[in-house]
Design a protein that fits this description.
This protein is mostly beta strands. The chain is built from five helices and 62 strands. Strand 26 and strand 27 form a beta hairpin.
């Protein structure tokens, strides 16, 4: 019955029952609602797009639209694991980092990145030009932000935080320098027309009153410039939000002054003067007075303009803002205002009033106090000191015992009692723990022992030995037990059973048990009767030359006068910074590599937690615009990524290039009159327009053996174009693309109707 229905459907499509000489079942499983998936395999385009050898341009354009859409569909979304430590990025700005060289603990910032220019901060440090409007002379200049030798350090610092040790940048010398370099020496005294200069993204104009070589360099921060003429009154807004009126009254050509009323107070001003109104500076950048027309006055002024003064001289002097020293900010330009090659700025936070401002702590930023357009941001460390991206080693005391917990290279976690004070009498290994048992030496029942195969460490326990089950070994990562070991069997790596004595409940192994553990990320723990050490892997440093900085953290395990077990932390040295909290209850340590530990001290070292990074920790310091944001992307997470599978050249062909219609999936554009493949699909009609109506197009699926063929054709080129548009925007028309055939009508590419074709 199903077969008869299939024949009826083929007949309704106007195709002979012997269509293409193939079977009739393969393509009938396809449905237009599945477009374009029937032409995809493993998310790759798996068909040929066919246009007629005599195709009109409009058919080709329609086919191109479909090809673009098919390329967009040839994608696959997969889950990708983001390995390694977290990453820190800024929405704009630049990091103190270089290719293959990130900032590390104790490393001079200048050794990583000595300076930044317009390539690093294209807006803030943009190259510029000052043009003297009177002489039409251009003065090109560049900008450079220089980074000092400040380092990231770690200590207990009351100025940074009164409780716990912190990471911070010590800025006692200076935070940074800025150099504005003119390629041709500029004469600032000759700038009289508000010529702008942009420094660190802030626009300034030169004070027109500067006229001599020995003058100070005076610049005005340019806000919005207003223009007012005699007889006019304007309303201005002060910095405090209050609105006042400014009225231009008259001018005096003898001294080029203008008379005005500001907030009902009489003021006489010349070009370059400033007037302070309730704490707001009004700068008059231009005062023009003329007799013709009689009494003509024109003023240009800006509200809220700060007056920046750099004292004349070759030595750094305090920058002045509106006549007041800007604490911590210094500048110099030389002794000749008419011949300036460089303007130097220096920010030295050590001179700021608050001690806390001398440091930039982890997570803090400092907005530049002069320009206000950029900030220095200490965005943190990756991986974070207690991040899950690190591997953790811990010693925890319960009663008279210390338990050791670590993770091995296979990410197996082990935890077992290691030290015991023997009921308050003497320090020893915990019950059953044995170290460095020689090969072919008895290991007794309930013994816990350590074995290494290369860099893989496992901790085992001899659970039991009996005549029926042989040796029963427990792996302490999950406490699973494996029995049936006999002499000659391999336990782990190269370790074999050389002897199994069920009467004495002992075994002998072909190699010695060990007192060393290799942790995840290749740190090595060495266990001794009275101390335990953690050695960093020298290969984990970013620079191979720093391998000598690999630290060994040595902890002393002892008993006090009351025979209570205790843990004593290591001493600080060059590669290990150690600091207590303000109460002395906790000790914190941080190595050059980035290994971080926390030791409890108030209760005789009850706990010790060590966090070891996979690679040398990276410290992130940025210079960014003030509105930039910092974001952290956690490592070790899964994110989705989309891959575009390119449609290969050769996926489009002319009709006369297709000799075997069953060899591939086909998308055929254009009817039998212009496309020979379309003619074959439709049974080679005597009249090529048979089956088509003016103003209509069809989208039809055909059985093509094991393949699928789809015809997209209309009575005219415009009709075909509407049908290709439907398929190019298939997601928009998805609800109307159903069955094996639809009819497409309409009057334009925006007026399209789709109707199902009812099968008989």
């Amino acid at each position: 019955m199903k077969f008869r229905n299939a024949i009826k459907k083929i007949a309704a499509l106007g195709v002979g029952a012997t269509m293409l000489g193939t079977t009739m079942m393969g393509a009938l499983a396809a449905d237009l609602s599945n477009y374009p998936n029937m032409f995809m395999q493993d998310h790759k385009f798996n068909a040929v797009l066919v246009v007629g050898s005599n195709a009109a341009p409009i058919d080709i354009v329609g086919a191109i639209d479909m090809a673009y859409s098919l390329q967009a569909a040839a994608t696959e979304t997969t889950d990708v694991s983001v390995s390694g430590a977290s990453t820190v990025t800024a929405s704009s700005g630049v990091e103190v980092a270089a290719s293959g060289n990130h900032l590390n603990l104790g490393e001079a910032m200048s050794a990583v990145q000595a300076s930044f220019n317009n390539k690093d901060l294209p807006v803030l440090l943009a190259d510029g030009t000052v043009t003297n409007d009177d002489t039409n002379t251009d003065y090109d200049y560049t900008q450079k932000l220089s980074i000092p030798s400040n380092t990231v350090t770690f200590s207990q610092n009351d100025d940074v935080d009164a409780k716990d040790p912190k990471l911070y940048i010590d800025q006692h010398s200076q935070a940074y320098n800025l150099t504005v370099h003119f390629k041709k020496a500029i004469n600032f005294a000759d700038l009289n027309n508000n010529e702008p200069i942009v420094i660190m993204g802030k626009t300034f104009t030169a004070d027109a009153s500067m006229s001599a070589a020995g003058d100070d360099l005076v610049l005005y921060a340019s806000q919005k410039t207003n223009t007012i003429k005699n007889g006019e009154t304007q309303t201005i807004t002060l910095n405090n939000g209050k609105q006042v009126e400014i009225q231009c009254e008259s001018g005096n050509t003898r001294d080029s002054s203008a008379t005005l009323y500001i907030n009902n107070k009489l003021q006489v001003v010349n070009q370059g003067d400033t007037v302070n109104v309730e704490g707001t500076t009004i700068y008059f950048s231009r005062v023009s007075v003329a007799d013709v027309p009689v009494g003509t006055v024109l003023l240009e002024y800006s509200v809220g303009s700060d007056k920046l003064t750099i004292p004349n001289g070759d030595e750094y002097s305090n920058v002045q803002i509106n006549g007041e020293d800007l604490t911590g900010y210094y500048a110099k330009f030389g002794s000749d205002l008419t011949d300036v090659t460089n303007i130097y700025f220096k920010f030295d936070p050590n001179d700021l009033d608050s001690d806390a401002d001398h440091y930039l702590a982890n997570g803090e930023n400092q907005v530049d106090p002069l320009f206000g357009t950029f900030k220095e941001d200490f965005a943190g460390v990756t991986p974070a000191l207690k991040s899950s991206d690190r591997t953790m080693v811990s010693l925890d005391r319960s009663g008279d015992r210390y338990k050791l917990t670590f993770t091995n290279k296979d990410a197996d976690k082990y935890s077992f009692d290691l030290y015991d004070s023997d009921n308050g009498n003497a320090l020893s290994y915990a019950k059953g723990v044995v170290m460095s048992v020689a090969k072919d030496t008895d290991i007794a029942k309930s013994s816990i022992f350590i074995l290494n195969d290369g860099d893989i460490t496992k901790v085992f326990k001899l659970y039991n030995v009996d005549s029926s089950n042989g040796a029963i070994i427990q792996d302490l990562t999950d406490n699973s037990k494996t029995d049936g070991y006999v002499v000659g069997d391999t336990l782990f790596g190269n370790y074999k059973f050389d002897a199994i004595n069920d009467s004495a409940n002992t075994i002998q192994l072909s190699g010695a048990t060990l007192n060393t553990i290799t942790t995840q990320y290749d740190g090595v723990i060495t266990i001794n009767p009275t101390n335990i050490s953690f050695a960093e892997d020298s290969n984990d440093f970013e620079q191979s030359a720093d391998a000598t900085k690999a630290e060994t953290i040595l902890l002393t395990v002892a008993t006090d006068a009351d025979h209570d077990i205790k843990l004593v932390g290591p001493s600080a040295d060059t590669n290990l910074l150690v600091a207590d909290d303000s109460n002395g209850d906790w000790e914190y340590g941080l190595t050059t590599l980035g290994t971080y530990y926390v030791l409890e001290k108030n209760d005789k070292g009850k706990s010790f937690d060590l966090y070891y990074p996979e690679e040398e920790a990276q410290y992130h310091v940025f210079f960014t615009p003030v509105d930039a944001t910092i974001s952290t992307t956690a490592g070790g997470q899964t994110v989705k990524t989309t891959k575009i599978n390119k449609i290969n050249v050769g996926a489009a062909k002319l009709g006369n290039e297709i000799t075997d219609l069953t060899a591939q999936n086909l998308i055929v554009v254009g009817g039998p009159c212009v496309n020979s493949v379309a003619s074959k699909l439709m049974g080679s009609p005597a009249k090529c327009s048979d089956g088509f109506e003016p103003g209509k197009a069809i989208i039809k699926l055909f059985n093509n053996g094991d393949k699928v063929a789809m015809l997209v054709a209309g009575y005219s080129g415009d009709d075909t174009r509407r049908a290709t548009t439907v398929l190019a925007k298939y997601d928009q028309y998805a609800s109307q693309l159903t069955g094996t055939e639809v009819s497409v009508g309409g009057t334009s590419l925006s007026d399209i109707t789709i109707s199902p074709v009812v099968q008989q």
